[in-house]
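Note to self: keep these together.
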Amino acid sequence: MDNREFLESFSREQLIELIEIYSKNWLALDGVWFQSIEQAEGMDAAMFHDERAWERFTVIEARRIKSFLKLEKFPGLEGLEKALRLRFYGNLNKASFEYRDNSLIYAMEKCRVQSARHVKGMPYHPCKSVGIIEYSGFARAIDERIECRCLSCYPDITDESCACKWEFTIAE
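Structure:
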C-alpha cells in the first residue's frame, strides 16, 4: 500500500484531525527555529531570518492554495478570503473576515503564536514587519492587484480586540 492509499483509508474526520496535527507540527517547527536563533543571536537576527523565510514561503503557499482552489488569474478579494482560510495555520488561529468600503478586513482574533509566547513568559513576537511581508506577498500571489495595509499588529497595536488586523484592497 502506498502513502496515498494509506491516507484514503482514513475517515473524513480523521483526515481533518490529521490536517490539524500537520498544522500544529508546522507551527511548532516555525517557532522552534525562530526561538533557536532568538536565543543564540538575539531578536534582531531572528527577525531578519524570519522576514527572509516568510518572503519566500508565503508566495509558495499562496500559489499552491490558488492552484488547489482553481482560482482564476484575478480572483479579487473573495478569492483572497478563500485562500486565507486555507493557510497552514488557518485552522489553528481564530480569524474573522469583513467586507467594508471595497476592502477586506482580516482580523486575527486569537493568535496561537502570541498565546504560546505569553504562556511561556516570553515577550510577544514583534510580528508587524514580518506580517507586512507575509500578508502583502500572499495577497499579491493570489491576485497581483491586491494591496495590503496593516491596521494593528504587535508592537503597534491599535485595536485591542484582536492580535492583528489587516486591510486588503484592489489597487486602482
